[in-house]
Amino acid sequence: MERIGELIRYFIPGASLLKFEQLTGGVIHGTYRLVLEQDTAEQVYILQKLNSKVFPNTRQLMHNTRRIQQFLKVGTYPFQLSEPLAGSEGYFFYRDHKGQDWRLFKNIPNATSYDTVQNDQQVFEAGMAFGLFLAHLKDFQPQQLYLVIPDFHNLHNRFNLFKESLKKADESRKKEAQLEIAKIISLFERFQFIDFSKLPLRVVHNDCKLSNLLFDKNTRECLAVIDLDTVMPGYLVTDFGDMVRSMCCTASEEERDTEKVAFLPRRYLLLQEGFLHATASFISEAESAQLFNGAVYIILEQALRFLSDYLNRDRYYAARYPNHNLDRSRNQLKLLESMLESEIGKY
Ligand code: GN1
Ligand code: MG
Questions:
Q1: How many domains, the chain?
Q2: Given CB 3.0 to 4.6 Å as the disulfide criterion, which of 127, 168, 173, 216 pairs with 274?
Q3: Is 114 inside a domain boundary?
Q4: Where do the DSSP E strands lie in 179-311?
Protein backbone atom coordinates (compact mmCIF):
# COMPACT_ATOMS: atom_id res chain seq x y z
CA MET A 1 0.00 0.00 0.00
CA GLU A 2 1.57 3.19 -1.23
CA ARG A 3 0.46 5.57 1.52
CA ILE A 4 1.52 3.50 4.47
CA GLY A 5 4.73 5.47 5.12
CA GLU A 6 2.78 8.74 5.14
CA LEU A 7 0.31 7.29 7.64
CA ILE A 8 2.96 5.99 9.99
CA ARG A 9 4.76 9.36 9.92
CA TYR A 10 1.51 11.09 10.83
CA PHE A 11 0.47 8.87 13.72
CA ILE A 12 3.80 7.58 15.08
CA PRO A 13 6.71 9.62 13.79
CA GLY A 14 9.94 7.65 13.95
CA ALA A 15 8.36 4.19 13.69
CA SER A 16 9.04 1.88 10.77
CA LEU A 17 6.96 -0.86 9.18
CA LEU A 18 7.93 -4.49 9.79
CA LYS A 19 4.81 -6.36 8.71
CA PHE A 20 1.48 -5.61 7.10
CA GLU A 21 -1.54 -7.87 6.61
CA GLN A 22 -5.16 -7.36 5.65
CA LEU A 23 -7.91 -8.57 8.02
CA THR A 24 -11.05 -9.60 6.20
CA GLY A 25 -13.70 -9.78 8.96
CA GLY A 26 -15.54 -6.44 8.46
CA VAL A 27 -17.61 -5.66 5.40
CA ILE A 28 -17.51 -1.87 5.56
CA HIS A 29 -14.02 -0.52 6.22
CA GLY A 30 -10.69 -1.93 5.02
CA THR A 31 -8.82 -3.26 8.06
CA TYR A 32 -5.11 -4.06 8.35
CA ARG A 33 -2.79 -5.34 11.05
CA LEU A 34 0.53 -3.54 11.21
CA VAL A 35 3.67 -4.53 13.06
CA LEU A 36 5.91 -1.52 13.59
CA GLU A 37 9.32 -1.04 15.05
CA GLN A 38 9.09 1.72 17.57
CA ASP A 39 11.94 2.64 19.93
CA THR A 40 13.58 -0.72 19.10
CA ALA A 41 10.48 -2.65 20.23
CA GLU A 42 7.81 -4.33 18.08
CA GLN A 43 4.32 -2.84 18.41
CA VAL A 44 1.12 -4.00 16.80
CA TYR A 45 -1.56 -1.59 15.54
CA ILE A 46 -4.84 -1.90 13.66
CA LEU A 47 -5.19 0.42 10.68
CA GLN A 48 -8.52 1.21 9.06
CA LYS A 49 -9.30 2.75 5.72
CA LEU A 50 -12.67 4.32 6.41
CA ASN A 51 -15.70 3.88 4.19
CA SER A 52 -16.94 7.42 3.66
CA LYS A 53 -20.02 6.31 1.72
CA VAL A 54 -21.29 4.61 4.88
CA PHE A 55 -19.82 7.11 7.38
CA PRO A 56 -19.60 10.45 5.58
CA ASN A 57 -18.48 12.46 8.62
CA THR A 58 -15.29 11.04 10.14
CA ARG A 59 -14.94 13.85 12.66
CA GLN A 60 -18.36 13.00 14.13
CA LEU A 61 -17.63 9.28 14.00
CA MET A 62 -14.42 9.69 15.98
CA HIS A 63 -16.05 12.13 18.37
CA ASN A 64 -18.58 9.41 19.27
CA THR A 65 -15.93 6.74 19.82
CA ARG A 66 -13.84 9.06 21.99
CA ARG A 67 -16.80 10.19 24.11
CA ILE A 68 -17.92 6.64 24.79
CA GLN A 69 -14.43 5.47 25.66
CA GLN A 70 -13.81 8.46 27.94
CA PHE A 71 -17.04 7.66 29.76
CA LEU A 72 -16.26 3.94 30.13
CA LYS A 73 -12.73 4.63 31.34
CA VAL A 74 -13.88 6.60 34.35
CA GLY A 75 -16.14 3.89 35.78
CA THR A 76 -15.73 0.23 36.63
CA TYR A 77 -16.07 -1.07 33.07
CA PRO A 78 -14.51 -4.56 33.15
CA PHE A 79 -13.10 -4.69 29.60
CA GLN A 80 -10.19 -3.14 27.74
CA LEU A 81 -10.67 -0.40 25.17
CA SER A 82 -9.22 -0.34 21.70
CA GLU A 83 -8.34 3.35 21.52
CA PRO A 84 -7.66 5.39 18.40
CA LEU A 85 -4.37 7.29 18.18
CA ALA A 86 -4.28 11.04 17.85
CA GLY A 87 -2.27 12.33 14.93
CA SER A 88 0.05 15.33 14.83
CA GLU A 89 -2.81 17.85 14.70
CA GLY A 90 -4.77 16.24 17.51
CA TYR A 91 -7.31 14.64 15.18
CA PHE A 92 -8.07 10.98 15.61
CA PHE A 93 -7.88 10.27 11.90
CA TYR A 94 -5.76 11.21 8.92
CA ARG A 95 -7.10 12.55 5.63
CA ASP A 96 -4.73 11.84 2.76
CA HIS A 97 -4.36 13.98 -0.37
CA LYS A 98 -7.07 11.95 -2.12
CA GLY A 99 -9.53 12.78 0.65
CA GLN A 100 -9.44 9.23 2.02
CA ASP A 101 -9.65 9.00 5.83
CA TRP A 102 -7.62 6.55 7.93
CA ARG A 103 -7.43 5.74 11.62
CA LEU A 104 -5.07 3.72 13.75
CA PHE A 105 -5.98 1.78 16.87
CA LYS A 106 -3.82 0.43 19.63
CA ASN A 107 -3.86 -3.33 19.54
CA ILE A 108 -5.15 -5.39 22.44
CA PRO A 109 -2.45 -8.01 23.05
CA ASN A 110 -3.14 -11.71 23.02
CA ALA A 111 -6.63 -11.18 21.66
CA THR A 112 -8.56 -12.85 18.88
CA SER A 113 -12.05 -12.69 17.41
CA TYR A 114 -14.33 -15.37 15.96
CA ASP A 115 -16.87 -15.39 13.14
CA THR A 116 -18.55 -18.49 14.50
CA VAL A 117 -19.09 -19.75 18.03
CA GLN A 118 -16.37 -22.05 19.38
CA ASN A 119 -18.28 -23.62 22.27
CA ASP A 120 -21.41 -23.14 24.38
CA GLN A 121 -19.57 -21.34 27.16
CA GLN A 122 -18.56 -18.64 24.68
CA VAL A 123 -22.21 -17.83 23.94
CA PHE A 124 -22.96 -17.24 27.59
CA GLU A 125 -19.80 -15.10 27.91
CA ALA A 126 -20.66 -13.10 24.82
CA GLY A 127 -24.22 -12.41 25.97
CA MET A 128 -22.83 -11.25 29.28
CA ALA A 129 -20.15 -9.07 27.66
CA PHE A 130 -22.56 -7.17 25.42
CA GLY A 131 -24.97 -6.96 28.36
CA LEU A 132 -22.25 -5.43 30.55
CA PHE A 133 -21.40 -2.98 27.79
CA LEU A 134 -25.03 -1.78 27.82
CA ALA A 135 -25.12 -1.76 31.61
CA HIS A 136 -22.08 0.51 31.78
CA LEU A 137 -23.51 2.92 29.22
CA LYS A 138 -26.83 3.13 31.01
CA ASP A 139 -26.22 6.63 32.34
CA PHE A 140 -24.39 7.99 29.32
CA GLN A 141 -26.20 11.05 27.95
CA PRO A 142 -27.33 10.25 24.39
CA GLN A 143 -27.24 13.94 23.39
CA GLN A 144 -23.45 13.67 23.45
CA LEU A 145 -23.52 11.46 20.37
CA TYR A 146 -23.96 12.37 16.73
CA LEU A 147 -26.46 10.28 14.79
CA VAL A 148 -23.81 9.08 12.35
CA ILE A 149 -26.32 6.86 10.53
CA PRO A 150 -29.88 8.01 11.19
CA ASP A 151 -32.59 5.33 11.27
CA PHE A 152 -29.95 2.63 11.42
CA HIS A 153 -32.28 -0.10 12.70
CA ASN A 154 -35.53 1.36 11.40
CA LEU A 155 -37.02 -1.53 9.49
CA HIS A 156 -39.87 0.53 8.04
CA ASN A 157 -37.45 2.98 6.59
CA ARG A 158 -35.29 0.19 5.25
CA PHE A 159 -38.34 -1.45 3.69
CA ASN A 160 -39.15 1.79 1.85
CA LEU A 161 -35.56 1.92 0.59
CA PHE A 162 -35.90 -1.71 -0.50
CA LYS A 163 -39.00 -0.79 -2.55
CA GLU A 164 -37.01 2.03 -4.17
CA SER A 165 -34.22 -0.42 -4.99
CA LEU A 166 -36.78 -2.75 -6.56
CA LYS A 167 -37.97 0.02 -8.86
CA LYS A 168 -34.46 0.76 -10.08
CA ALA A 169 -32.98 -2.74 -10.18
CA ASP A 170 -31.86 -4.57 -13.34
CA GLU A 171 -34.38 -7.09 -14.60
CA SER A 172 -31.74 -9.82 -14.41
CA ARG A 173 -31.02 -9.23 -10.72
CA LYS A 174 -34.73 -9.00 -9.92
CA LYS A 175 -35.33 -12.30 -11.68
CA GLU A 176 -32.46 -14.00 -9.88
CA ALA A 177 -33.80 -12.80 -6.52
CA GLN A 178 -37.49 -13.37 -7.29
CA LEU A 179 -38.09 -15.84 -4.50
CA GLU A 180 -36.22 -13.81 -1.87
CA ILE A 181 -38.04 -10.62 -2.83
CA ALA A 182 -41.39 -12.38 -2.31
CA LYS A 183 -40.25 -13.83 1.00
CA ILE A 184 -39.06 -10.48 2.33
CA ILE A 185 -42.32 -8.77 1.41
CA SER A 186 -44.43 -11.44 3.06
CA LEU A 187 -42.24 -11.58 6.20
CA PHE A 188 -42.33 -7.82 6.52
CA GLU A 189 -46.12 -7.83 6.33
CA ARG A 190 -46.31 -10.58 8.92
CA PHE A 191 -43.80 -9.25 11.45
CA GLN A 192 -44.50 -5.68 12.38
CA PHE A 193 -45.02 -6.47 15.99
CA ILE A 194 -42.58 -4.54 18.14
CA ASP A 195 -44.14 -1.43 19.57
CA PHE A 196 -40.98 0.59 20.10
CA SER A 197 -42.90 3.34 21.86
CA LYS A 198 -43.19 0.92 24.83
CA LEU A 199 -39.40 0.42 25.03
CA PRO A 200 -36.84 2.81 26.52
CA LEU A 201 -34.52 4.52 24.07
CA ARG A 202 -30.98 3.75 25.24
CA VAL A 203 -27.43 4.15 24.06
CA VAL A 204 -26.73 0.77 22.46
CA HIS A 205 -24.00 -0.86 20.38
CA ASN A 206 -26.07 -1.50 17.24
CA ASP A 207 -23.71 -4.11 15.79
CA CYS A 208 -23.53 -6.86 18.42
CA LYS A 209 -22.10 -9.63 16.33
CA LEU A 210 -19.74 -12.18 17.79
CA SER A 211 -16.81 -10.87 15.74
CA ASN A 212 -17.12 -7.53 17.53
CA LEU A 213 -15.84 -9.14 20.73
CA LEU A 214 -12.20 -9.88 21.42
CA PHE A 215 -11.32 -12.96 23.44
CA ASP A 216 -8.12 -13.95 25.20
CA LYS A 217 -6.34 -16.48 22.96
CA ASN A 218 -5.46 -18.69 25.91
CA THR A 219 -8.10 -18.32 28.58
CA ARG A 220 -10.92 -17.60 26.05
CA GLU A 221 -12.39 -14.95 28.36
CA CYS A 222 -13.80 -11.82 26.79
CA LEU A 223 -11.31 -8.92 26.70
CA ALA A 224 -13.04 -6.18 24.75
CA VAL A 225 -16.15 -4.99 22.94
CA ILE A 226 -14.97 -3.39 19.71
CA ASP A 227 -16.37 -1.45 16.73
CA LEU A 228 -18.03 1.49 18.43
CA ASP A 229 -18.90 3.10 15.07
CA THR A 230 -22.62 2.56 15.39
CA VAL A 231 -23.02 3.19 19.12
CA MET A 232 -26.03 5.50 19.05
CA PRO A 233 -29.42 5.82 20.69
CA GLY A 234 -31.41 2.68 19.92
CA TYR A 235 -33.04 -0.34 21.52
CA LEU A 236 -31.71 -3.13 23.69
CA VAL A 237 -33.82 -5.75 21.93
CA THR A 238 -32.19 -5.13 18.55
CA ASP A 239 -28.75 -5.47 20.13
CA PHE A 240 -29.89 -8.82 21.49
CA GLY A 241 -31.19 -9.64 18.02
CA ASP A 242 -27.77 -9.13 16.45
CA MET A 243 -26.27 -11.48 19.03
CA VAL A 244 -28.78 -14.17 18.13
CA ARG A 245 -28.13 -13.58 14.43
CA SER A 246 -24.43 -14.24 14.75
CA MET A 247 -24.30 -16.75 17.61
CA CYS A 248 -27.35 -18.99 17.51
CA CYS A 249 -26.75 -20.34 14.06
CA THR A 250 -24.96 -23.44 12.78
CA ALA A 251 -22.99 -21.35 10.25
CA SER A 252 -21.71 -17.81 9.68
CA GLU A 253 -23.56 -15.24 7.58
CA GLU A 254 -21.04 -15.99 4.82
CA GLU A 255 -22.16 -19.62 4.38
CA ARG A 256 -23.44 -20.09 0.82
CA ASP A 257 -24.98 -23.51 1.34
CA THR A 258 -28.28 -22.81 3.08
CA GLU A 259 -28.61 -26.50 3.95
CA LYS A 260 -25.93 -25.81 6.53
CA VAL A 261 -27.75 -22.86 8.07
CA ALA A 262 -30.05 -23.54 11.03
CA PHE A 263 -31.12 -21.91 14.27
CA LEU A 264 -29.76 -23.43 17.51
CA PRO A 265 -32.36 -23.09 20.31
CA ARG A 266 -29.99 -24.34 23.03
CA ARG A 267 -27.53 -21.60 22.21
CA TYR A 268 -30.34 -19.08 22.22
CA LEU A 269 -31.20 -20.00 25.80
CA LEU A 270 -27.56 -19.76 26.88
CA LEU A 271 -27.14 -16.40 25.19
CA GLN A 272 -30.29 -15.11 26.85
CA GLU A 273 -29.10 -16.36 30.21
CA GLY A 274 -25.74 -14.58 29.90
CA PHE A 275 -27.37 -11.40 28.63
CA LEU A 276 -30.00 -11.31 31.38
CA HIS A 277 -27.33 -12.00 33.98
CA ALA A 278 -25.65 -8.73 33.01
CA THR A 279 -28.77 -6.65 32.43
CA ALA A 280 -31.04 -7.93 35.22
CA SER A 281 -30.72 -4.74 37.28
CA PHE A 282 -32.14 -2.44 34.60
CA ILE A 283 -33.87 -4.34 31.79
CA SER A 284 -37.58 -3.47 31.65
CA GLU A 285 -40.35 -6.07 31.55
CA ALA A 286 -41.36 -4.90 28.09
CA GLU A 287 -37.79 -5.41 26.88
CA SER A 288 -37.48 -8.92 28.35
CA ALA A 289 -40.76 -9.83 26.69
CA GLN A 290 -39.53 -8.66 23.28
CA LEU A 291 -36.11 -10.33 23.12
CA PHE A 292 -37.11 -13.05 20.69
CA ASN A 293 -38.99 -10.53 18.56
CA GLY A 294 -35.87 -8.37 18.54
CA ALA A 295 -34.04 -11.28 16.94
CA VAL A 296 -36.75 -11.81 14.32
CA TYR A 297 -36.68 -8.09 13.57
CA ILE A 298 -32.93 -7.82 13.17
CA ILE A 299 -32.51 -10.98 11.07
CA LEU A 300 -35.30 -9.85 8.76
CA GLU A 301 -33.66 -6.43 8.58
CA GLN A 302 -30.31 -7.96 7.71
CA ALA A 303 -31.84 -10.20 5.03
CA LEU A 304 -33.54 -7.13 3.59
CA ARG A 305 -30.35 -5.03 3.72
CA PHE A 306 -28.30 -7.66 1.89
CA LEU A 307 -31.04 -8.10 -0.70
CA SER A 308 -31.42 -4.34 -1.25
CA ASP A 309 -27.69 -4.10 -1.75
CA TYR A 310 -27.78 -6.94 -4.28
CA LEU A 311 -30.53 -5.07 -6.16
CA ASN A 312 -28.44 -1.88 -5.95
CA ARG A 313 -25.48 -3.68 -7.56
CA ASP A 314 -23.48 -4.08 -4.32
CA ARG A 315 -22.82 -0.50 -3.38
CA TYR A 316 -22.79 -0.91 0.40
CA TYR A 317 -21.38 -4.30 1.41
CA ALA A 318 -18.11 -5.50 -0.07
CA ALA A 319 -19.04 -8.32 -2.48
CA ARG A 320 -16.35 -10.79 -3.52
CA TYR A 321 -18.35 -12.48 -6.29
CA PRO A 322 -21.44 -11.55 -8.35
CA ASN A 323 -24.17 -13.09 -6.17
CA HIS A 324 -22.47 -12.57 -2.82
CA ASN A 325 -25.11 -10.27 -1.32
CA LEU A 326 -27.93 -12.45 -2.64
CA ASP A 327 -26.32 -15.46 -0.96
CA ARG A 328 -25.97 -13.51 2.26
CA SER A 329 -29.64 -12.62 2.11
CA ARG A 330 -30.60 -16.26 1.46
CA ASN A 331 -28.50 -17.28 4.43
CA GLN A 332 -30.31 -14.83 6.74
CA LEU A 333 -33.73 -15.87 5.41
CA LYS A 334 -32.90 -19.50 6.11
CA LEU A 335 -31.84 -18.66 9.66
CA LEU A 336 -35.07 -16.73 10.20
CA GLU A 337 -37.25 -19.52 8.82
CA SER A 338 -35.48 -22.07 10.97
CA MET A 339 -35.90 -19.87 14.03
CA LEU A 340 -39.62 -19.38 13.43
CA GLU A 341 -40.10 -23.14 13.07
CA SER A 342 -38.24 -23.91 16.31
CA GLU A 343 -39.88 -24.57 19.67
CA ILE A 344 -38.88 -21.11 20.87
CA GLY A 345 -40.40 -19.54 17.78
CA LYS A 346 -43.85 -21.08 18.19
CA TYR A 347 -45.87 -18.38 19.81
C1 GN1 B 1 -21.63 -4.24 8.88
O2 GN1 B 1 -18.98 -3.15 10.95
P3 GN1 B 1 -19.19 -4.35 10.10
O4 GN1 B 1 -18.59 -4.25 8.78
O5 GN1 B 1 -18.78 -5.56 10.84
C6 GN1 B 1 -22.85 -3.39 9.21
C7 GN1 B 1 -23.75 -4.10 10.20
C8 GN1 B 1 -24.15 -5.44 9.65
C9 GN1 B 1 -22.91 -6.24 9.28
C10 GN1 B 1 -23.23 -7.53 8.62
C11 GN1 B 1 -22.31 0.29 9.60
O12 GN1 B 1 -20.82 -4.44 9.99
O13 GN1 B 1 -24.89 -3.33 10.46
O14 GN1 B 1 -24.92 -6.13 10.54
O15 GN1 B 1 -22.06 -5.50 8.42
N16 GN1 B 1 -22.43 -2.09 9.68
C17 GN1 B 1 -22.86 -0.97 9.09
O18 GN1 B 1 -22.13 -8.32 8.64
O19 GN1 B 1 -23.69 -0.97 8.19
MG1 MG C 1 -19.81 -2.40 12.61
A1: 2
A2: 127
A3: no
A4: 202-204, 213-216, 222-225, 232-234
CATH assignment at residue 97: 3.30.200.20
Domain that includes residue 48, residue range: 2-107
Atom 15, ligand 1: which residue's CA is nearest? 27
Contacts of 159 (CB under 8 A, 6+ apart): 188, 304
**Ligand 1 pocket check for 180: Cβ under 6 Å:** no
Q: Identify the residue whose C-alpha is closest to ligand 1 atom 8.
A: 207
With respect to residue 44, please indicate whether it lies within any of the assigned structural domains. Answer: yes
In tens digits, the chain (347 residues) has pLDDT values of: 668 899 999 999 999 999 999 998 788 999 999 999 998 999 999 999 999 999 999 999 999 999 999 999 998 999 999 999 999 788 999 999 999 999 999 999 999 999 999 999 999 999 999 999 999 999 999 999 999 999 999 999 999 999 999 999 999 999 999 999 999 999 999 887 799 999 999 999 999 999 999 999 999 999 999 999 999 999 999 999 999 999 999 999 999 999 999 999 999 999 999 999 999 999 999 999 999 999 999 999 999 999 999 999 999 999 999 999 999 999 999 999 999 999 888 75
Helix residue spans in 137-252 (DSSP H): 155-168, 171-176, 178-190, 236-247
Same domain assignment for residues 39 and 174: no
Burial of 162 (0-12, 13-18, 19+ CB in 10 A): buried
Q: What is the CATH number of the domain that holds 182?
A: 3.90.1200.10
Q: Is the CB of 207 under 6 A from ligand 1?
A: yes
Distance 337 CA to ligand 2 centre (A): 25
- 63 lies in a domain? yes
Residue 44 beta carbon below 6 angstroms from any ligand 1 atom: no
Same domain, 175 and 283: yes
